[in-house]
Amino acid sequence: MRVIECADAPVSSSESAAQAILRNSQVSGVAMTNLLTGGSDSREIDLLVYTESGRLIVVEVKATGQSGQLLALSNGPWQIGGQRAYFWGGSQPHRQARANAGQVAKRLRKNRVSPPWVEWIVAIDGPIQLSEPTKVDNGWVCRIDQLVSFIERSPEKSFRSPGFEGELSRVFGVPQVTESLSHLGAPP
């Protein structure tokens, strides 16, 4: 997968790890990092992944030093090892991921682009126990090392439209997207 850095901003070691995992994967597509959605309510997206199969996925990367079984609740604080989970930004990271996916869809619509279904996943870097990517709310949670297997899954919904790569490039101001996706699967 081609990884494109969109903003000259510091990244956490967990975000760097997620980028390396995607960069070294065999998934055909592009991942934009540190992408700003723009506008007065702009949000920073850790990773926005667009795959050859037509999946558009917002990835929120979170780190934790806590260990144990992860319990990802839709309507309450997450727990790790029976204790409240602590992540930068709070104990319910799915809310941030869901809001980021909504901002991506909103930005596309505002620019007269009919967005595909924008999926979201929280990828956790830390010693948590989670046997496979797990559904939470209308998104997903996984360990960082499960991210590629999640992306490679058959999508619940996908969208492949000629020219969508160009629209992503135009809307988010990242010209390398069109170049990367014009020959998907080729090494960067």
- Which strand order does the major sheet show? 1-2-3-4-8-11-10
Structural class: alpha/beta
**Main sheet overview:** 7 strands, mixed
**Straight-line N-to-C gap:** 8 Å
Total number of helices = 5
Return the string of H and E elements: EHEEEEEEHEEEEHHH
Compute the gyration radius: what is it?
Answer: 16 Å
Please state the overall shape, judged from the principal axes of the Cα atoms. Answer: globular
Strand content is 25-35%
Description:
This protein is an alpha/beta fold and 188 residues long. 27% of the residues lie in helices and 29% in strands. It has five helices and eleven strands.
State the gist of this model.
The protein is of the alpha/beta class and 188 residues long. Helices cover 27% and strands 29% of the residues.
Features:
188 residues, seven-stranded mixed β-sheet, globular, 5 helices, four-stranded mixed β-sheet, 27% helix, alpha/beta, disordered C terminus
What are the SSEs and their pairings?
Blueprint: E1 2-5, H1 13-23, E2 29-36, E3 44-51, E4 56-63, E5 68-71, E6 79-80, E7 83-84, H2 93-110, E8 118-125, E9 128-129, E10 134-136, E11 139-143, H3 147-152, H4 164-172, H5 176-181
Parallel strand pairs: 1-2, 4-8, 5-9, 8-11
Antiparallel strand pairs: 2-3, 3-4, 5-6, 6-7, 10-11
